[in-house]
Amino acid sequence: xxxxxxxxxxxxxxxxxxxxxxxxxxxxxxxxxxxxxxxxxxxxxxxxxxxxxxxxxxxxxxxxxxxxxxxxxxxxxxxxxxxxxxxxxxxxxxxxxxxxxxxxxxxxxxxxxxxxxxxxxxxxxxxxxxxxxxxxxxxxxxxxxxxxxxxxxxxxxxxxxx
Length: 162
What we know:
The protein is of the alpha+beta class. The chain is 32% helix and 14% strand. The chain has helices at residues 10-30, 74-93, 111-121; strands spanning 35-38, 64-67, 126-131, 144-149, 160-161. The longest helix is centred in the first third of the chain and has 21 residues, at 10-30. The termini are far apart.
């Protein structure tokens, strides 16, 4: 008795094609997934000069960071936002106490008062009083502070290094 080969039903064909399509899509999306890297804090690389400096009281940034293609690290972003929120809460709790720049807000002071407050903390800094909206160089220098003032010589935003 010879057996005739069984023909596949349309349902089996459709299921087989769906399984193949799912497997292919998983392979394709696996190449575009988020990658994770471990940041070595003492690495001697040429890009170490490009790494941002964070306030010392924040501690070290997360060692393992998600690298979302074209958008930087979401892990690092969330860590920075959390630390900034903690600083904000701390500054609200310390309001009315004697603080110095950069913790003390200089917004609303005259440019000269702000300059004196900054120099009282660190007299090695180069402090510039600049009208708001002026063109300035984009280079980043840790020994420089720019104080942006309005037409009445009042500080319009918190001065920072750079």
